[in-house]
Amino acid sequence: MPDLQPEIRTVSVRNIEEIATHFDAWDHLAWEAPQRLPPLLPDWVDAFLQHKLSPSEHWLCCFAYIGDRLVGALPVIITPHRILGSSWPTLRTPSDVLTLSGDVLLACDQAKPAFEALLVELRHQVPHHLSLELKAVRQNSPVWEAVKGGIHGYAIRFGLHSQYSLLNVNGDADSYWSSLGNMRRNVRRYRKKLESRGQVTVEIRKGSTATEGLLAKYMALEASGWKGRTGTAMTTSPFYATLIRNFAARGRWEWHIIRVGERIIALGMGVVCGAALMLPKIAFDEEFADCMPGSLLTAEVIKSGFSRPELDEINHLSNSDWHGLWRMSQDKYVDVYLIRRSIASLLFQLPRVAIRSAYHNIVRPRIPAFVKEARRKFARRGDRKPRRAADSRPAHSDSTLTQD
């Protein structure tokens, strides 16, 4: 006789107090997940749900259990969508410019049944939703097993294909540094230049000391640079304070710091998930731009990563040109859309998804490089580069999305 599939029960919650009762099981599942992405952890989702929703949005979180074992967690943002005078909500997992991956958390050995159970629960809780959008699903995600062969009640479409940088720090450090060539020599040269301006100290702050106390210093440092001048520096949103507080309580937040004397001249964020260290943002003091403080801090974080046996990879969850200077590899992430098999969805939602997918994967890759560069210059037309930076494109970092 064939093995019987164990019964999966589902639970849905709509407030922070109720969701907290699932945190321990959720945290364990996310920590062991192959994606190793901090946005999957409940501490990240908690901060997102509290501070990142617009006034018209609300949220729901569905959980799938086999006995007491959590095998799936699906937080969704519910956004009203008006069609012919009626509201037809669209759903998405938590995602934005910082939370780039909105994957679904599934146990590897129960991926398909758990996902199907979660979707049944979702249809029960939000019966008229048009679609579910999953941003940047990593290629090793159990979601790919779950959608293989299709999902009952949904048409599956794929959107933007992204390549995000990562560095394997589980290998031989000497071989890695030898492969850097000129970059390694430049780091040494600029480190000596920085040391000529005062005593240089490097700190990797982890554990109980890595609290939100440095957040104000980070924000001031970022605001003092080009992002402050263009109005794109980090705002005083409580999201970051909650995010750091959540992760610091579990000893998973890190600050990466370079000082000259008592002055912080480069400051970066780090958060650990499983055997991966993600680097969300980094900022530097433009008065030291000629010393490449962003690159110097990157070198220190990589050096620390190779010395930490608990880490396998450093993941920027972004892709910038300067990553190539550090010989970083890339992993594929794909947007996944589940479109309800209903008249309203197929008439109004499916064409929008198809057009967006065609643009990202057919039109956009064929746009000439000079057109993209002209657009970037136009978007940054009010910016002024650091006064002493001869070439800040690859050398000076402001975030994981840009390096000048």
What Rg, in angstroms, do the CA atoms define? 22 Å
Order of helices and strands: EHHHEEEEEEHEHEHHEHHHEEEEHEEHH
Helix content: 25-40%
Spatial separation of the terminal alpha carbons: 63 Å
Which residues sit in consecutive blocks of at least 5 with pLDDT less than 50?
382-404
Name of the CATH homologous superfamily of the largest domain: Gcn5-related N-acetyltransferase (GNAT)
Can you tell me the CATH topology of the largest domain?
A: Aminopeptidase
Strand content: 25-35%
Number of strands: 16
Shape: globular
In terms of structural class, how would the helical and strand content be classed?
alpha+beta
What is the domain total for the residues? 2
Mean pLDDT over all positions: 86
Number of helical segments with 4 or more residues: 13
Main sheet makeup: 14 strands, mixed
CATH hierarchy: architecture of the largest domain: 3-Layer(aba) Sandwich
